[in-house]
Amino acid sequence: MDTRQITHAADLSATVEQLVETLVETKDFPRIVEVVTPLSTEQVVALLERLSTDHRAIVYRLLPKDNAIEVFEQFSPALQRDLIQGLRDGEVATIFSDLDPDDRVWLLDELPAALAPRLLHGLSAKDRQLTSEVLGYPKGSVGRRMTPEYISTRADVTVGQTMQRVHDQLDDAETVYTLPVLDGSRRLIGVVSLRDLLRADDGVPISAIMQDASAMTAYQTAEAAARRCAELGFLALPIVDREDRLVGVLTIDDAARILEHEETEDAARQGGVEPLRRPYLATPVRSLVGSRIVWLLVLAIGATLTVQVLSIFEATLEQVTVLALFMPLLIGTGGNTGNQAATTVTRALALRDVSPRDVGRVLLREMGVGVSLGALLGALGGGVTTVIYDPSVGLIIGLTLLAVCSMAATIGGVMPMVARAVRADPAVFSNPFISTFVDAAGLVVYFMIARTVLSL
């Protein structure tokens, strides 16, 4: 196989994977180096994510040192943990020391607690201090995801002095494109971009070109800070303590990583599973089972509500058996309507288009949407049912669709708002639980309407 072709053909990833697997099993390490070395960092990451744990560690050891740390940084924290467990202590220490402080904390959050002191002890005094500063903030806070390696300047110095400072600290900072401007007490008073520094004359004071700063405190959630950074289009968002003293910056790449993690988690929980935290093919089967079984048990218990409703109205079903034919239609329509509303509102909450104080407005809007959808579907379903069966059954189906859609949309829209108000994850309150509740409540509405129309 021509190795040069591999680097330019994404569709050959399966072939590369099979080739590398064969080479590992035959212990042809020189050939592995020949195949893997020309690949880009992204291609190597994709390849390693698809290999087994043991083979992944072997191939990773054969990567050029400069490329190895770039590959490691692109893994998810859970996959980093898996890889570390397959490496020797010396290799782990080297990787850990080459990471940025915030990336070390991502990894430490995944590793066993007993391993963290050993890894921290192997760092230089400076790196250990920087990492400990980040570790000191609560889990989930932006302080735990910021980088303390930044370049700052002061309002009373010149552009030339600031550019010299940038030049001197270029290798130590994670970003140089946005510089926080501080006063004598290290309080944040503004920011200046590298573009403005390059445009201005050396003698111009920073106070003349700096802009107002938008910052977040280190104790606010990482998701909120990441969304703020993305919404404002900042390359780096200053992070301050409770006294407005600068403690770090959140870079745009870390913000994107946080948002990807949060959105993956929300999408998983809306589907009734726990997030995997690893690429699918790198996730053990037992982890896939574990991510789903708890939710399935919870939903199965919730589904007993539907069974109870059916037992209560068993006599009604015996008198009018045709009603049983429409139960899947009504249950499915109600669940889908509720899920649509919940998904829409959960996303609006994430984007901060709405907040818990808007619950009344959301309720009215979703009730209006539900009534409109119910009227349209009810007219269609009732009309078709009237033609096939009789007008009384058509009336039951039409009225039930109107009621169920109205109820489902209203509940689906309000539940995520309630979840946010009580500081729970809106995704957990959305699709699975709404479907279970609407199924049972929809059947109650269905049979009550049927009893009224048919005078049972």
UniProtKB/TrEMBL annotation:
It comes from the Bacteria. It is a multi-pass membrane protein. Keywords: CBS domain, Cell membrane, Magnesium, Membrane, Metal-binding, Transmembrane, Transmembrane helix, Transport. InterPro entries: CBS_dom (IPR000644), CBS_dom_sf (IPR046342), Mg_transptr_MgtE_intracell_dom (IPR006668), MgtE_N_sf (IPR038076), MgtE_transporter (IPR006669), SLC41_membr_dom (IPR006667), SLC41_membr_dom_sf (IPR036739). The chain crosses the membrane at residues 293-313, 367-389, 395-415, 427-449. Residues 146-209 form the CBS domain. It comes from Corynebacterium kalidii. Homodimer. It is found in: Cell membrane; Membrane. Gene3D superfamilies: CBS-domain, MgtE N-terminal domain-like, SLC41 divalent cation transporters, integral membrane domain. This is Magnesium transporter MgtE. The lineage of its organism: Bacteria, Bacillati, Actinomycetota, Actinomycetes, Mycobacteriales. Acts as a magnesium transporter. One of its GO terms (molecular function) is magnesium ion transmembrane transporter activity. SUPFAM superfamilies: CBS-domain pair (SSF54631), MgtE membrane domain-like (SSF161093), MgtE N-terminal domain-like (SSF158791).
